[in-house]
Amino acid sequence: MSTSFDATGIGQFAVKLNLASEAQVRDLLAELDDPGAPGEEMIRLMERKGVITPWQGGKVRKGDTDGYYLGGYRILYKIASGSFGRVYRGDDPRTGQVVAVKVLRNKWTMDKQKVDLFVREGKLGMTLRHQNVVSMLAVGQDPKTGQYYLVMEFVEGGNLRDLISIRKKIGVDESLRIMEECAAGLGGAFAKGLTHRDIKPTNILIASQGVAKLVDFGLAEITTMGGSVQLQKQSDKDDDVAVDRTVDYAGLEKATASKPGDVRSDIYFLGTVLYEMVTGEPLMPVTKDKQARMAARRYQQVEDTLANGGPAHGMPAELQRLIAKMVAFDPIRRYQTPAELVNAIQECRAKLGIGSVLAVRSRTAEGPHTLFVVEGNAKLQDAFREKFKAHGYRVLMSIDPGQPLRRFQQQPYHALIVDAGTVGEDGVEAYSRVLKEADTIGVDLAAILILNEEQESLRHRARQHKHGVVLIRPVTMKQLLEKLYELAPPPQAANTAEAG
C-alpha cells in the first residue's frame, strides 16, 4: 500500500512511525533530488543509509503501521523463529542498548495456559540477575496489536549447539570453564527458587567474549498434568513444541521417582552437555520418539555409556568421575545443589591444572567496554559521544539521574560519568547508588562525579570509593579521559594512543 506513495509520502510515513526524524527525511529527499520520485527509491535509500533495516523496509512496503516498537523497544530484524515464538534483534532508542525481543506467536495468544507461562517466565526472569543468565528486561502486551513480548539482554555470539557443530569437540579446559559458568548461573536461579527444566546446548549461549549464559528458564513447560509434563500438539507444524526437552525431564523423573522441578534433574542434563562438549557425541540416543524418550532404560544406560565412552575418547579420569556423579541414575548420588557442582568443577580443574574462571571474571562487567554518561546539556552530550567513542568506549547517554542504576541492574557497564552540574543534586545520589550496587554484585566500576564550583559542598555526600573520583569544574574532556584511563582503560586504549 505504502509503495503507492512518492518519496515524500514515504518520508512522512516513516516520520509518523517514528522510524526517522524530520531532519533525516529532509536530508534523504535532498539526496534523491526529486521529492516526487517513486516511494521505492526512498525506501531503498533509507535502507542503504541505515535509517531503517531491510526488515523494517519490508513492513513499510506493505503499509504496516504496527509492530515496529514493543514496550518502547525498537524492532530491527528477526533472528530466530519457532512454533512457540519469534525472536527479534532490537534496541532501546533512549540508551542505544541492544536487546533481544521474543514475541509469542499470535496463534497462542488465546491459549491462557501458554500466555500465563510466557508472562510468568518474563516476570520470574526479571527477578533474576546473574552474569551467567541472560537478563530479562521487560515483559508486556502491546495495547494495539495484543502481542505478548519479552525483552532480554542481547548476547553477541551463538549457542553451544552451533559451537559444537562447528568445532566437533571442545577442549577439556574450555568445556569445564563453560560448565562452571553454567552451574554458577543455575545456582543464581536456584537461590531464587527457580530451576531450568530445559537444559540443552541450544539454551546455553556463548557470548563473543566467551562467557556462558543460560537462557529460556521454564519456557518449555507448556502444560502440567498429574505431576508430569504433557505437551499438547496442535498440528504437525508444532513438532518442535510437542517433541521438547521437557519430555526428557519427564522421562528421567518418572524413572527415578523424582518430583518435577528437582534441580538435580538440571544437574543431570548439564552432565550430558559436558560429555557432548568433550567427546562430540551425545550421551543419550537422539530420538524424537516420545515413547523412547520416556523409557527408563534410556537413562539407566547412561552410566554404562560414560564408562565405555570416556576412556575411548581419552577423557581424563577426574573429568569422567565428575560427569559420572552429575549423571548418576539415582538422584541421591548426584551433586545435590548447583553450588556443590561449582565446587566440584573447580576441584576438577585444580587437579587437572586448570584455574577457575569465576574469581577472574567476577570483578569485570561483560560485553564491549561501556561508559554511561548522565548529562543534561545537549552540546556536552555530543562532545562526550564523540570523544569517548573515538577512544574505544561504547557510550550510553541519559539526562535522567535514575537511569544509570536501572541500566546497571539490568546489565552492568564498565564506567560512569555523572554531571551533577547539569542534572542537579540527584546526580550525586545516582553516582553513589550505582557504586553501591557495583559493590553489592561484585563488579568493578570506574565512576566520575562532576560538580560545579558552587556545588562543592555536595562533595561530602558522594560515596567514597577507591574506583570513584569527584571533580570540580572547570574540567576539560582531556582531563576526564585521562582520569577514566586511570580508573578503567578500554581494551583498545593502547592501540588508540599509538594511532593518535
From TrEMBL:
GO biological process: phosphorelay signal transduction system
Residues annotated with 4-aspartylphosphate modification: 419
Matches recorded under InterPro entries: CheY-like_superfamily (IPR011006), Kinase-like_dom_sf (IPR011009), Prot_kinase_dom (IPR000719), Ser/Thr_kinase_AS (IPR008271), Sig_transdc_resp-reg_receiver (IPR001789)
Its EC number(s): 2.7.11.1
Gene3D superfamilies found in the cross-reference section: 3.40.50.2300, Transferase(Phosphotransferase) domain 1
SUPFAM superfamilies assigned: CheY-like, Protein kinase-like (PK-like)
Keyword set, alphabetical order: ATP-binding, Kinase, Nucleotide-binding, Phosphoprotein, Transferase
PANTHER family assigned to the protein according to its UniProt record, in alphabetical order: MITOGEN-ACTIVATED PROTEIN KINASE KINASE KINASE 20-RELATED, SERINE_THREONINE-PROTEIN KINASE YBDM-RELATED
Name the record gives this protein: Serine/threonine-protein kinase PrkC
Taxonomic placement: Bacteria, Pseudomonadati, Planctomycetota, Planctomycetia, Gemmatales
Gene: prkC_8
